[in-house]
Amino acid sequence: MKIYFYHTQNIQDILSRYRQGQFPGHLLYGATHLEDYGIEIVWHQFIKSTSRIKRMLLTAWRVLRLGNKIDAVYATHYTGIEILIFLRALGIFHKPIAIWHHQPVVKSSSKIREILGHLFYKGIDEMFFFSQKLIDDSIKTHKVDPLRLHLGYWGADLDFYDRLLAEQHHREGFVSSGKEMRDMDTLVRAFNDEELPLDIYLNRSNGGINYERLFSSLHIKENIKVHFTTSQGVPELARLVNKHSCVVICCQDTKYTVGLTTVVEALALGLPVICSRNLQIPVDFNKEGCGISVPYYDVEEWKNAVNYIHTHPEEAKEMGRKGRALAERLYNDRHCAEVVAQVLKTMNS
């Protein structure tokens, strides 16, 4: 079987660094291990254009030109392949399409958008989701076939993180490394009161939130260090995270898996997690014993969780061990590749 692998990010850069052991492969959504299951890959060549229409047209042209040289399309997101999806829905493009759907399928208040939405999802043969909650919410819209929705078990490249663990850093303090939809106000207030060491790594702005402006308006005590990561990528941040003893993920209330990338990294590094109670996240931290879940915007509960980790170091280490075991059992890129491969092969049968 041969697939066309589409990604919104620069595949060539990620793949090159991955093969040198310098970048985690899970950001390629299991594709690095699909050959283990007899699946050949045509790697999408990254398109630098900022024009979404141009990217869609060029991607569609590249795939259509391949004709019968591929058996299916596997995409990490539908953005950029919308033309192919609509052609598939209309019966013009005859190769099955499998995608990762990052948010739940939703209903629209617009009748026209609802009609187009039903047509759009008709053009997607299989969909992978990050959690069962996203699947359950999607099914309620009646736009998608439940039998074609799959829990993908997206997880970390453990080989990459094992190399970091071999560096044997002394671990101390708390760390926040995510940037999307982060609730920095609640986090700062909690750590101001507890006066425990916290390193915050994030962009100056992300997703419409100007974090630099936000921090300038907050009272921040000396125990909190804010680092703007303009030049640090995924590997560099992972090394910084590995120097700490607990990962904190304080997010705003959303309908998708905000914080998941940070979660799977913490599990791979064997670090305990304190995380906002995002029901879309597939990991139940309290149930699995790998961390503590905290209600959104609750400063007092954040203070309690932070203090508990600080005053129970051995239990915190055990949380980290349980998290790593969970990563080895379920949330890793090899398991993800196995699930994806099984689905892709059914499309080709």
Secondary structure elements and pairings:
Blueprint: E1 2-6, H1 11-19, E2 40-43, H2 52-66, E3 72-75, H3 82-89, E4 97-100, H4 111-122, E5 126-129, H5 132-139, E6 149-151, H6 158-165, E7 174-176, H7 184-194, E8 198-202, E9 205-206, E10 209-210, H8 211-216, E11 224-228, H9 234-241, E12 246-249, H10 260-269, E13 273-276, H11 285-288, E14 291-294, H12 299-311, H13 313-329, H14 333-347
Parallel strand pairs: 1-2, 1-3, 3-4, 4-5, 5-6, 7-8, 7-12, 8-11, 12-13, 13-14
Antiparallel strand pairs: 9-10
Helix pairs in contact: 3-4, 7-12, 10-13
Spans of 5+ residues with little confidence (pLDDT < 50)? Answer: none
Described by its quaternary structure, the protein is: single chain
Please give the count of helices: 14
Helix content: 40-55%
N-to-C series of helices and strands: EHEHEHEHEHEHEHEEEHEHEHEHEHHH
Structural class: alpha/beta
Cα-based radius of gyration, to the nearest Å: 21 Å
Mean pLDDT: 95
Strand percentage, roughly?
A: 15-25%
Largest sheet: 6 strands, parallel
CA-to-CA gap between the ends? 10 Å
Shape verdict: globular
- Strand order in space, largest sheet: 2-1-3-4-5-6
User: What's the count of strands?
Assistant: 14
